[in-house]
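tool_log.txt
---
The assistant was asked to compare two proteins side by side. It first ran the structure predictor on the initial sequence, then on the second. Raw inputs and outputs are pasted verbatim so the downstream comparison step can read them without reformatting.
(1)
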Amino acid sequence: MTMFLQFKSQVTQALTLALEANGLEVTELSLEESVHADIASSVAFRLAPLCRKNPADIASMLAASVKVPEDGLIDRVETKGPYLNFFINKTFLDRTVTAIRSQGQDYGSQGGRGKVILEHTSANPNGPLHVGHIRNSIIGDTIGRILEKAGYEVETQYYINDMGRQIAIVSWALEHFDFDTTKKSDHAIADVYIQANRVLNDEPDKMAGIDELMQRIEHGVPDVAERFKHAVDLAMEGIKQTLGRMNIHHDSFAWESSYVRNSSVSTTVSRIMDTGRTVVDDSALMVDLSDYGFEKKLVIQRSDGTSLYTTRDLAYHLWKAGQCDRMIDVLGADHKLISGQLKAVLNALGENEPEIVIFEFVSLPEGSMSTRRGKFISTDELLDQINTQALAEVEKRRPDTSDDFKQEVANFVGIGAIRYDVVKVTPEKSTVFDWREALDFEKQGAPFIQYSHARACSILANAEESGVKLADLEHDISVLVEDQEIELIKNLARLSAVIDTAATDLKPHHLATYAREVADSFNQFYRYVPVLNAEVSLRDSRLVLVDCARNVLSIVLNTLGLHAPKSM
């Protein structure tokens, strides 16, 4: 158990005993972090109707009954009106610093919490990723990193739609239009896809050829399957490169067609029919989910006998359910209805349901994007633009450095700016990505957090150059009495509690907020507390604290998928 959770546990025990001493009992102690204390309790409000007393008087009565254990982590309890405020002691601070030093990059990590299959991105392979996709990828990748830190074995998957109408159009397009091999492959795929849509729009009779391809792929005709795979491979090659630029990598790729080939889809349809929920309407097979609150029936088989994306997705989820302890999907707000229906069908089958992270969309000031009309801003274009702007910022701040150094810093600052700016907003809120704000070193975004890590590295490097051996340093917690020192240690102690909350709620913005708070408290410490110029025992203890801050900043940056630079 981490230091903060131990402290919370001791507060729980002390307050429970105080209640018992006064003949009182409640089901909820109402403990929370507060700006006025390390942990505050508003339990007096709950007791007021029962005791028929003023909540402030109840709080005073309980505070007088709290016994602070001598060898514990509680320093004292105070009241502020109706609130009971608990504060940590020097033992808590000392053990936190010791734990961070001894555990290094493992600080805040847990283990043994089971297997997670996390699906994210899964964009249709009919062109490059556009700006509308990046929030899915960044949220998904960051959740995966947080879950790993929280102790889960995580497998990230990309579900490849290689059977739908869009892929049939791409396959047809590759037979009818020139493929530009000088372009990045996913962009060249988008070109032929857009051309094909124009022709199909102008000459609707050609859609019969697309419908025929859909029939043939469903029946596994080898040459058609090969053509579809070739088209998808070209798109996926480019998509993987783009994801790699953002420091995003999938552990495995699940092909939609494989669930048709291995009979999982037909087995799934049979299982759904066995529930007695299916009805045939206009020769199509549908599932009645009205008792789950869905008025519209879910089509799982077309009148011509072919399956739908939803049917294949159900087969995929049934496979996943047997492979893991937690199944998580990251989906856009436009998937709310279908994901709800998917969960309902799985529930009706008595299977585990996925946890769905629904996100609202990220947009640019430029406006809307559409792959079909050829008017979209690709993620590659955005990354290039950000890199150019980041390079200009570095040029302005570090004009005396080499071109290689400037480009290296621009790369990690640019990617960090996008990833942090996207993930700092809770998923269910829509957001506009403004590169000017994201790259602003004065605002508390990614560059600010990365610069805080670099600054800590610089202080430690200067100490070593002056002959200090960091590994041999001892710390004396009794000399660290400044508010900025104590506040920094308290913030460092919260890491695993924040990781745990983010992993439970699947809300990566909790970690983004925490990263900013740690960077801010380190900067306050650095600004007001001299380190290298302090007398030796104080200097050594403060250097240990700088090293602890560096370590935690490195952990949170890595968990957010951001580079932790030694200089910038």
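(2)
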Amino acid sequence: MISINLAFIAANGMGMWHRNLLTQEYIIGTSLFAFDHMRNENFAEAVIAWEQHLHPDDRERGDSEVKAMLHDGKQLEIDFRVHQPSGNIFHIKSMVTVFRNDAGKLIRIDGSNIDITALKLSDEKLKLAASVFTHAREGIIITDPLGNILDVNGMFTAITGYSRQEVLGKKPSILKSGMHPPAFYTEIWNMLVEKEHWSGEIWNRRKNGDIYPEALSISLVRDNAGIITHHVALFSDISHIKDYQNKLEEMAHFDPLTHLPNRTLLRERLSSAKRQCRCNKLLLAILFIDLDGFKAVNDTYGHDIGDELLITLSHRMRETLRENDTLARIGGDEFVAVLTGSENKDNCKSILERLLKAISDPVTVGKVTLKVSASIGVRFYSQDDTDSDSDLLIRHADQAMYEAKKAGKNCYFVFDVTKSRLMDTRRVNFDRIRMALQKDEFVLYYQPKVNFRKGTVIGAEALIRWQHPDRGLLLPSDFLPLIENYPISIELGEWVITTTLSQIAAWQALGLDIPISVNIGALQLQHGFVERLQTLLSAWPQVEPRFLLLEVLETSALADVMQVSKIMHDCIKLGVSFALDDFGTGYSSLTYLRHLPANLIKIDRSFVRDMLTDPDDLIMVESVVGLAKSFKRQVIAEGVDTRAHGVALLELGCEMMQGYGIALAMPASELPKWIANWSSGAGCAVNNLIDKNNKKALM
């Protein structure tokens, strides 16, 4: 060990190390030392202290160097590390000179220690930077402040294809791809000036001409005085990332079989097309295309043949459309096309015809020749159609496609916006009316019927009202026409019968026995009416069926007289009776009356209302009264709004009447009181009026 050698020197009386080498805290800078054979005090102590401060990893090397110096050399230069008591490590450079006498005997050693810690650290940093520069996986470019290339690393060459010698002194603009406008590069340099850093994606060109994407980061380097000395750019080739993104884009937006846009991309392009349509004031056409007979191809030849058919037809359709049009596959054998830039609907007709032909032409797959056709629904969209979102437009086109299938397939059908809105309104009304039924918002009002000659109450007609929570009390004309001939009208009709039977039972409990008539719609009459009526009557066994009078519109009855006649006969067997309502409005042969078992005929109010001023209406009323007598039927006039109408009807032989001149329709709670008042005085007043003014009517 070095301590042994130095101890040997000390034992032979040969000098010492200067003590300033062994101070507790080494002086930064240079320290001198000397060993003189004339002064040999505390040498061993000095050697031990020196050894304690020496870094363990440097002791063996130091020992070897000292041995060589003492044995052979005259000079020694050695770097070693020492420990401070604080734990810090310093790098020391020792430069030693050996002096010998003429006999070669060692007489003196002089030297100096220099603190080279900062130099060592700087050197290590330089080595690290050089290693990073050489081995970095990013391309690196270093330029001067004017942008001239000073150095590049090996990865720069690997990415761009340019060697270091080819680019030194040139500017990085040799890599420009031409894909970015000048403003793009101006923005980069403006950002460098403002932030001293820029990072982003850029497209550059390799030496072989290939264009590639790279992630680029540029930074400014300043010296201690704040002056720009260099630009440093680091970049990576991100072609593989872009390829992966493109694959994800393909998967997210395109159909894997036909490579056409899928539903997601269709929505984006349709939204864009709508904006262009509004800006350019042009027409847009959305086509929903469904292949006719494709399922049979799949079932017969298998899915592989079916897929080949879809691919071929996709190419044909795409070639038929214009460059700016979009064709998307949204699933199975369903496609949607978006035709843009049309000035009117006629411009699209030729494209539709070509599409139908392109699809219907035979397709040969292997040895199999296939033939299918298409049903196409068309929804036109203009700048005025602001309420329709993309999904709604596609649904409309889908609805029109089904109409094309109903029309025989291999054709197209144009969606009717106006008709659709009416249907939507009707659908909303259906839902609201059904809700009203569930919430008991409907009520029945009752309009009395009287024998005008006798002054007696002969019954009442149940008339439906809607107690709407927002609009108040609604008359039948406000809502019944909306549901006519739709199934919900049957539900509402049965509610009227049930409520009427319930009210008859309540009145009978009070001692009031009068028949009540209800209106029966044509649809209700022809859909299991006899069975349903029997069920409803069975629910109220305390009510005799004779108290229920069913009024059937003449126009409904005459639509299929024999069928309606059978239904009426079956119902009469249950105990109810019938009236033929609004008689005279059907314009059909009156001989049909002999087939209908209605014992009461109601003269329509439209004739009664104007009979006093219109001779034709008077003749019609007179004819109906005469016809009823001929067929031995009773007759009642509705729409009797004045006592004058009553007098005139009596002259014609019609005694039974109802109308505003007698009483308005009223809630069920008010009818018993009205009947009591009528019977006690009002009826007599009628007779007195007739006696005074028209005694002939009594004859």
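---
observation on (2): The chain has four domains: 2-121, 136-242, 254-415, 429-698. Residues 305 and 366 are 9 Å apart (CA to CA).
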